[in-house]
Design brief:
single chain, about 375 residues
Length: about 375
Amino acid sequence: MNITIVPEQEETTPETNDGFASEFDDGEMRNISSFEIVSEMKIGWNLGNSLDAEGPTETHWGNPVTTKAMIDAIANRGFKTIRIPVTWRFHQGPSPNYTVSKAWLDRVEEVVNYARANNMYVILNTHHEDTWIIPTYTKANEVKNRLSKLWTQIATRFRNYSDYLIFETLNEPRYENTPQEWTGGTAEGRDVVNQYHQVCLDAIRTTGGNNMSRHVMISTYAASTFPVAINALKIPNNDDKAIVSLHSYFPFPFTLGGTDTTWGTNSDKQALDAEMDKIKAKFIDNGIPVVLGEWSSGNLNNLSDRITHAAYYANAAAQRGMPCVWWDNGKIGVSKDDLGIFNRRNLAWVFDDIADVITKAYQQ
């Protein structure tokens, strides 16, 4: 298990924010259902490849330091939700305490407050922790111990925030570089992922305060929509504040695979409708709300087809009561990996037409 420690991390006691969460968040919990929360989240945007970079700083993967002006621009464009992926392992001390550095907690909270200053919903998670969150029986006890300590620290820091802050226990929990990594996992893997969610949620609830009733997103194995994955998901404790988190880059050859640059035929639309209906039938129709926490498409000089796909996807999700959160990794070149629609350096909407159709989908 690789634990990288940077010099800033010394064993410190994480601060507890008592009283108001911050000047940007009044700490109100409105005693509303997760379905009501989800209905307000609408369209979202991911701050991808920044705080979740696999390195000691948020600029490690080439994106600039996140500023309030960036988040202001996202909010002003009509996005109601921001997902802030965070990688914690480069800022954690060793066992037995796995203490997260105060400096990193402070920085994460600073970015959360940029969004709360715009009255946005915020999804805060653990991201790119797959080197140690390994879903096997042999690793389970070790991982559960560390997960519990990590989420206790995160939840303690943010426990006085309002219900506009949503925790997401795990990102795409999976066993990396295995044959079943992206096809729903093995029975063992799916079972252990359920156990990991249980430990995370228990840690969050135990911190008390607003976290007793905070809305928490729970993902399938790898956040997959494969039937074997969605059928295996267990909501810990049948918690009525749980929201299912799914990532549906559908269809993969067009969105991420880079092998198909066209989209928009009747059969394309029927297939996407079938994907959305499958999710709705499994969860929403059974009283469990869903957030599509990641989706997007790479830029292969096929803007017209990307716009057509984005509009249809967002409208299909909105019609079924599911917010969707565009995965923007800050890359704005021409390749299947260039998923950015917003230039964080000059605060310009490089693909404003995509931003336009997906925000309008949730205004109807």
